[in-house]
Design brief:
Layout (H helix, E strand, L loop, with lengths): L1 E2 L2 H14 L4 H20 L6 E5 L3 H15 L4 E6 L7 H11 L7 E3 L13 E5 L11 H13 L2 E5 L20 E7 L15 E7 L5 H6 L4 E4 L1 H4 L17 E5 L6 H13 L4 E6 L4 H7 L4 E4 L18 E4 L7 H13 L4 E4 L1 H8 L12 E3 L2 H8 L5 H15 L2 E4 L5 E4 L2 E5 L11 H14 L4 H27 L2 H6 L1 H7 L8 H12 L1
Helix pairs in contact: 2-3, 3-4, 8-14, 11-12, 14-15, 15-17
């Protein structure tokens, strides 16, 4: 799914009006009606008090459309206009007149100086105060109003975005933003729904189709793509009947140090479970017995050192891809070894954990990375790599600049892991808090390494690997819960994540019966 910027949404609205020969007012009617339909389908006429707060711009116009339909369908609705300025939009004024024609209870004009309306915790608030176009600080009265919404504990439904939340910056004052229980967003979700500092302003979100111009939707390139099952399914490379292991590459995991051989074990298992044909692990001598015993499918090569990686020499092994860094440590001998290795290596790389920490300490090594090297840092590792950031948008800006400069793919791990390549962001939708556990990052490194091994483009491998990693955790968490999910479970359920790619959604019983009747015919 594409995630459009606010400028692209404005352009889409304009093109839709031109190409469908409709007015902006008619497009607003379409948007507001879709919101009403969503509410009506769920409420079925229930007489819960609904408080619709409308700004005086186009978002407020949407709110007036919603209120008018609620009124004409007999709902218990009160409409308020946040009347803090004289700059009313044309479409707002049209819909202000329309709602006055269907009810004797005209919208209450709030002058931004008086007391707030009484709202109970069992009521519903519809927030249509500001949309995506907000470009000024919220004044003190509106901030107090938004805090009033929150204090009532009433269910709050925001239109397009929670009021006070910009689409391209982090709020400086959390109290100057509506905290929505649900946001209904037009055309596409907004990037702010997925960033750590801004996702908190809406518990859930949903996209409503308002029939924007199809050519615009299909042909417009976006900076951000939202990655779900629909997006990754075309990435999957099917296997032929007479395939053999030699066709799916040889993945090599280099890592481990005394006490941290488990990281290599997890990454190696994940690489093979993701589809690599062969897997080798290059580890210190101390891990030989551990790895050979715990993971018999792996071939093991040991460093001459007992406890550290000090000389990367895999001799007759010809890997397709190398995953480096899990559990490797940052001993000066290991740092020197990595530097010597990078000076001659031409094999695709996936680098994680202490591999990233070494690159952060000796940034000159970044120039030696093969093009499209995949880096998978957690937040602290990322900070060491690119420096501190002011907020999430500044972080993305810095990561994009880093990716462009070094031709790398950066996987920003988090609740919505974001894969960055050049100027493009791929926001993942799978995964859950159970992944906040030791070793889950090692598993992700192994999955991406295993996908590259069998011929996936590094960028596709990163995006697809992040999806599979999260999906496996989503399936596993149903059996183990968040607290008891461990990294090994993610590997064990990876097969089910692959199988899930081809599962069809379950049909409601009525549709199943209709399908059976059609089959009999």
């Amino acid at each position: 799914m594409k995630v459009f910027s606010k400028e692209q949404i404005y352009e889409g609205d304009k093109l839709t009006a031109e190409r469908q020969n409709i007015t902006s007012t008619e497009l607003m009617e379409r948007a507001g009606t879709q919101i009403f339909n969503w509410m009506h389908m769920r409420m079925q006429g229930a007489q819960v008090p609904i408080h619709v707060f409308c700004g005086i711009g186009n978002n407020g116009g949407d709110g007036l459309v919603i209120s008018r339909h609620l009124v004409t369908h007999g709902y218990n609705v009160k409409t308020y206009v946040v009347n803090c300025s004289d700059k009313r939009s044309k479409d707002f004024l049209v819909n202000y007149d329309r709602i006055k024609n269907v009810t004797k209870k005209w919208p209450t004009l709030l002058s931004c100086t008086e007391d707030f309306p009484e709202i109970h915790h069992d009521d519903i608030i519809v927030d249509a105060v500001f949309g995506i176009g907000l470009n000024r600080p919220v004044d003190s009265w509106l901030k107090a109003l938004f805090m009033h919404f929150r204090s009532t504990k009433a269910f709050t439904l925001s239109i397009d975005v929670p009021s006070g939340l910009s689409t391209d910056k982090v709020p400086t004052d959390p109290d100057a933003v509506v905290w929505a229980g649900y946001t209904l967003s037009f055309a596409s979700p907004k990037l702010v729904f997925f960033l750590p500092e801004t996702a908190k302003y809406t518990v859930q979100w949903e996209v409503l189709d308002i029939d924007l111009d199809q050519e615009f939707l299909y042909t417009t390139e976006t900076e951000v793509d939202l990655i779900g099952k629909h997006e990754v399914l075309p990435m999957y490379i099917p296997r032929e009947k007479f395939s053999h292991k030699g066709q799916f590459g040889h993945a090599l995991i280099i890592g481990g140090s005394y006490g941290k051989i488990g990281a290599v074990t997890l990454a190696s298992k994940a690489a093979l479970s993701a589809g690599a044909g062969l897997i080798s692990a290059y580890i210190p001598k101390c891990g030989y017995g551990v790895l050979q015993t715990s993971f018999p499918e792996a071939m093991v090569i040991t460093d001459e050192n007992e406890e550290l990686i000090t000389n990367i020499d895999f001799k007759k092994v010809e890997p397709t891809v190398i995953g480096f860094g899990v559990g490797v440590g940052t001993n000066p001998k290991t740092v020197s070894t990595l530097e010597a290795f990078l000076k001659t290596n031409k094999i695709p790389l996936v680098i994680d954990a202490d591999g990233i920490n070494i690159l952060s300490k000796k940034k000159a090594l970044l120039q030696l990375l093969p093009e499209a090297t995949v880096l998978t840092p957690h937040p602290k590792e990322l900070e060491r790599l690119i420096g501190k950031w002011k907020d999430d948008f500044d972080k993305l800006k810095k990561v994009k600049a880093f990716s462009i400069k070094h031709s790398t793919i950066v996987v920003i791990k988090g609740a919505n892991t974001i894969t960055v390549f050049q100027d493009k962001l791929y926001v993942n939708t799978t995964g859950n808090p159970g992944l906040a556990t030791a070793g889950s990052g090692d598993v992700l490194t192994g999955i991406i390494t295993g996908l590259i091994s069998q011929g996936y483009n590094p960028l596709v491998a990163a995006v697809f690997g992040v999806y599979l990693h999260g999906k496996s955790a989503d399936i596993a968490v149903e059996d183990f819960g968040y607290q008891s999910l461990i990294a090994s479970h993610v590997i064990n359920y990876l097969g089910e994540a692959f199988i899930d790619l081809f599962k069809q959604p379950e049909q409601p019983p009525q549709e199943q019966e209709e399908d059976k009747k059609e089959d009999k015919k």
